[in-house]
Amino acid sequence: MTGSATVPPPGPAERLHAIVEQGLCIGCGLCQAVAGPGSISVRRVASGYEAPVVTGPLDHATVDTIYDVCPGTRIDGLPDRLVDKRTVVDPVWGPWRRIVRAWAADPDVRHRGSTGGVLTALCVHLLESGQVDHVLHVRASSTEPTFGEPTLSSTPDEVLEAVGSRYGPTATLRHVTDALDLGRPLAFVGKPCDIAALRNWGRHDPRVDDLVRVWLTPVCGGFGTPDATRGFLDRVGIHPAELTALRYRGHGCPGPTRAETADRVEERHYLDFWGDDESQWTLPWRCKVCPDGIGEAADLAASDTWPGGSPDRVTSETDPGTNAVVARTEVGRRLLAEAEAAGAIEVEGDIGPAEMGEYQPHQVRKKYAAGPRHEALGAAGRIQPVTHRLRLRDLAAELPPDEVARQHEGVRIRIADGRATQPTPSIDATESPTGGSP
After folding, report:
1. CA distances (Å), 136 to each of 2, 31, 192, 194, in order?
2. What is the DSSP letter of 396?
3. pLDDT tens string 7-21
4. Contact at 8 Å (CB) between 117 and 104?
5. What's the half-sphere exposure (Cβ side, CA atoms, 13 Å) at 70?
6. Which of these, 56, 74, 60, 95, lies nearest to 19 by C-alpha position?
7. Given Cys at both, which of 83, 144, 300, 360 links 332, Cβ 3.0 to 4.6 Å?
8. Which helix (H) or strand (E) holds 277?
9. DSSP letter, residue 82
10. Which of 120, 97, 122, 107 is CA-nearest to residue 339?
11. Has residue 272 got a pLDDT over 90?
């Protein structure tokens, strides 16, 4: 009798690698914190991204935990305990207590910040008022200028040294357990996916909810692929090996993208990096299927305020920067009021979800599309992210059937042509690990 060969079940490393191979790894670094660096090292790999590399023994129980906390496999909205009768829940923009237009009161912070400097000003206020001892956030990498790296700031000066958006790979949570080991109250600033990851980890490590007193995030449209960054450097005539510093934005709103070598500086408009409209954005696959670019699990989220979602090439040259700030919880609402009263930020006035949709129309489109895109992943036999409290099913139900079908077909095509796939993570011998312990 002829029988078929038995296919062995995937091992722990293969299960971990599947998250990367299916394009769902955002490189946040939490899996390294969960398993320990003796088992997993999140580092630059041959694809140019940061991804987990198995470095030692790894068991299924640990990978089960990683699947439960990874923001590629599970993304939740604001915990129920932080939503009360005073919370308004918008179908697209989620829970909120107050939404305002604001900016950092200090003109230098406003100028240097990514938009209006509000997140920076709030972190400085939290330290100066003694509400936290540290801020866990990111800065430009000390070893790879196109990357970011986690940093733990304990003084306002340290916060200011790290201003500016990082549009390159950044393992924000690689050393989060080191920060928790200090046993001191802290504020966390990360992308919405980083916020979701750390909230997930809080179900396993009670120190998260005990020590992370404030959760802050930028509203995020995604980060640039390594190929996009290399393409920009090619256009300005700089080889990556020559690069000594890269400022993606800041020093204005949005401010120029600035590349430096040992002997010259090249500056281009922000739109010369990203393109003039959303159709030109080059994003990782995980960002294209993101169900929460608006930071629903944070206490407070801050966004750009460009009508139509993109800066004007002319007026942006003199734009001093204004944030739209969504306070989602009582902690966020109170922080906003305290910072205004203390003179840390200036509030121009209250706005609402309608204005947010005008400033961030791409977030509205992506929110509606996320549910169908996730369904298409499942139908293709891929990992389908688990989500809670993001209203994806309700939003998808509002879409016409032909639009749902279009989203399904778009995912199918991208899987078929390889745009939703990454190679198994392997170390490029020419690269070195990025980032250090905060």
Report:
1. 60, 17, 14, 11
2. H
3. 778 999 999 999 999
4. yes
5. 29
6. 74
7. 300
8. none
9. G
10. 122
11. yes
CA pair distance 395, 388, nearest whole angstrom: 13
**pLDDT confidence of 436, banded at 50, 70, 90?**
very low
Domain of residue 147: give its range: 83-225+277-360
**For the chain, how big is the Rg over CA atoms in Å?**
21
Instruction: Answer yes or no: is pLDDT of 284 > 70.
Output: yes
Question: In angstroms, how far is CA 347 from the centroid of its own chain?
Answer: 25
Q: Which residues contact 83 (CB under 8 A, 6 or more apart)?
A: 89, 95
Question: What are the tokens at 405?
Answer: 């079908």
Amino acid present at 230: R
CA 47, CA 258: separation in Å to the nearest integer? 24
Asked, for residue 232, whether it belongs to a domain, the answer is no
Phi, psi for residue 170 in degrees, rounded to 5: -150, 115
Q: What is the CATH number of the domain that holds 157?
A: 3.40.640
- Burial 246-268, CB ≥16 within 10 A → b, else e: bbbbbbbbbbbbbbbbeeeebee
* Residue at 403 is within a domain: no
Total domains in the chain come to: 1
Instruction: Indicate the residue type of 220.
Output: C
Nearest to 289 by CA among 358, 356, 376: 376
Helices (H), 243-314: 270-274, 285-288
